[in-house]
Structure formats: structure tokens, C-alpha cells
Specification:
It contains 2 helices and 10 strands; from the N terminus they run αββββαββββββ. The protein is mainly β and 165 residues long.
Length: 165
Amino acid sequence: MGLLGLASKSAVKKVLERLAGAGMIERTAQGDWAPSERFFERTLAHQPIPAGIPVGLEGDAYEKLTLDRYLIPKPTETVLIRVKGDSMIEAGIHDGDLAVVERCPEAHQGDIVAAVVDDQLTLKTLARDKNGYHLVPANSSYPVIRPQGKLEIFGVLVGLVRRYP
């Protein structure tokens, strides 16, 4: 009541019911009110924006998109990990980015993986040659990492989030 500046519980109830009717909030399993997926929807233009030669606009066509659903297909198996360093800069992964990593013990050659190599976590491209699996940076200033002991796949990169100032 205080947050909305309303003097009665019935007025708050009406506001909550209207928000629920619009699909903006929903009841949790515990009966509490919580924002629904629709609450977090953002507008996505149908026409892509060229990063080369400009093109004319095609009107106001758009759809709704929820970033969580777009970036995280398996929420219970996904973790966000902040990137530190520049060893993957040539793959477009910068210091401070959030790596969206889907937890899985297996990956394919060419996948960018979060891996535990010799008890240390790193983000690199998984590769294999006659000597076995190894991790390849996307920056020629860094060496290929060949495990001295154990190489374990923590997960596979499925998305990346970057904020601009």
C-alpha cells in the first residue's frame, strides 16, 4: 500500500489483478506475486540493422523478445561467468563480458568451452590433434593449453552479454 501510495488493501488488490490480467505478474507456487516472463519482454525489430551500407526503413514491424529465453535455453543448466582477460579477444569475447555457459560434461571440437584444466578454470576453444584434446586461445599472444593432468569440460558457451558505457 505504501509503495503504491494507496490507502486500502482492496485498491492494491485491484492493481495486482489488472497487472495479472495484462500478463505482467503471476502467482508463484508459494502464492506470492512475481513478475512474469512478459514483464521482461523487450521490443525486437524485424528488420536487422546493417553494420555496413545503410538501407531504407521498412516500417514499424517488431515482435516481443525475452532476453533470458533468447540467451538461456536451459536455465537450470546455465551459469553466467564474468570474463577476465583478453585471450579470446579475436573471437569477440572481451574482458568484463558475461559468458553464458550451459553446463555439460561434453563438447565438440571447435566449441568455445569453460574448462577446468589442471585444476584451473579457463575459457578457450576446444581442439584435438594426434596428442589429444587441448585448448586454443583466440589471441596469438597466448599459447595453446595442453593439459599436464586432467581436462574437464565445465560447459559450452551459448551466449555473451556486453554492456556499453
